[in-house]
Amino acid sequence: MLTLGAIALTMGSALLLRIAVCMLVMLACAFITAFTAFLTVDVRVRASGRTVQKGDSLNAGVSIRFFSPLPLGQAAFVSDSGQTVRSGGMPFVRYESTVRVDCPHVGAVSPGGGTVFVTDMFNLFVFSRKVPDPGTQILVLPKTYPTDAPKPETRLAGNGEVRLQDDASEPADVREWTEGDPLKRLHWKLTLKSLDPSKLNVKPFVKIYEEAARPDVLVIPDLSQPDTADERAAFLRDGVCESALSVCRAALEEGLPFRLILCEDGIREESAENVQNLQAVAEDLAKARFDAFVPFEVLAAQAMRRVGTAGAAVFVTPSLNPRDAEALSRLKTFCGMTVSVRLVASKGSFQAQMARLEAAGVDAQAYDPWGKGAAV
User: Fold this and answer.
1) What is the mean pLDDT of residues 121-139?
2) Each residue of 12-23: pLDDT tens digit?
3) Which residues are 114's β-sheet partners?
């Protein structure tokens, strides 16, 4: 345009000068159109769901809308994952498309933001702007794999038979009455024998019944932050969540109630009545942050506190040192219930600790999160 205008002025050609002016007008219109569209462009990314299984892909809807006095070349959106969505250049039209978001690991993910590019119809001007992350959280749920349910040990009564609490048969023993004991446990005959008519006082006695431990299965995952690189840590987190959920599912399939003990900032317990209700448990595992340090002794203490109400304890951990193995061995020795560990590690790791646990009667199994086809 500038060259043509210079030639027109030099030669005194009115025709060439008109052509140069027309080119200037076209250039101004292209700039104004592209810049107006850039100022008004609105890109929104929406997820198609709230949950997705690990390894699946999530479709995120992308809408592009802008205002311009004249048609554009195009408005393109490039997501943070590298996928491109191109729209037409007609104004006053909202363009819809989708991008695929891969979900290779358990946890909360976002469809993500990206960058929008606006060009005029002559591709002379290109404007770009960063599109922020919408902040929509999608939970990537762990999958499960086939595993055996733990077999709870049932404490027997003194005669070798299991008796339920407040069994109508003979009591195991008697003791003095204390505040809070139910009246139905009073041993009336022995209490009346202790009555002293001269002093008008009575010494109540209550019956003591041995009771079998409930067959509850405690599932206690280690939610400490893995001491390894980011990508490897993501696989270890996946393995912990998948192993814990698989044990819960196996327990329900065997008709055993379970309690999932989550130790992070506080202590939380989760449970489900049947396999169909495991969705909520899977979501709780997916929300686990794995950003705290919880000593293994704290996990063992949670099982020790529930000795009277559980028959088995399953620990899920990505690491196992000799001190942890000693804690599990002592728990097995003194608690009287089934103790097992699911070690999330590559095959062949921690062989010495696993052999030590097997010798102590602790069921130790390894789950390789890098193995193909492990989770279903």
Assistant:
1) 86
2) 888 888 888 898
3) 79, 131
CB neighbour class for 222 (10 Å; exposed up to 12, middle 13-18, buried from 19):
buried
- How far is Cα 318 from Cα 329, in angstroms, rounded to an integer? 18
Residue 206 has pLDDT above 80, yes or no: no
pLDDT for 225 equals 86
Average pLDDT over residues 120-140: 87
* 176-212 CB burial, b ≥16 within 10 A, e <16: ebeeeeeeebbbeeebeeeeeeeeeeeebbbbebbbe
User: Strand pairing partners for 140?
Assistant: 52, 107
Query: What is the 8-class DSSP label of residue 36?
Result: H
Structure tokens given for 13: 């050609």
Please say whether the beta carbons of 324 and 296 come within 8 A. Answer: yes
CA angle 220, 224, 228 (to 5 degrees): 130
Q: What is the pLDDT of residue 251?
A: 92
Q: How far apart are CA 219 and CA 338, in angstroms?
A: 12
Contact 44, 97 (CB under 8 A): no
Give me the pLDDT at residue 278, please.
92
pLDDT of 373 reads 41
Report the pLDDT value the prediction gives residue 199, as an integer from 0 to 100: 67
Contact status, residue 249 vs residue 208, Cβ threshold 8 Å = no
Reduce the DSSP state of residue 56 to 3 states and report it.
coil
Residues 6+ apart with CB under 8 A from 273: none
Whether 128 contacts 116, CB under 8 Å: yes
Residues 97-111 have a mean pLDDT of 86
Question: Which three-class secondary structure state does DSSP give residue 229?
Answer: coil
Taking the alpha carbons of 163, 165, 168, 172 in that order, is the dihedral positive or negative? Answer: positive
277 φ/ψ angles, rounded to the nearest 5 degrees = -95, 10
Q: Which residue has the tokens 């995120």?
A: 60
Residue 282 has pLDDT above 60, yes or no: yes
Contact 255, 216 (CB under 8 A): no
Looking up tokens 């814990």, which residue turns up? Answer: 244
Gyration radius from the chain CA atoms: 35
Mean pLDDT of 192-210: 72
Q: Name, in order, each residue with C-beta under 8 angstroms of 190's C-beta and a sequence gap of 6 or more.
A: 174, 205
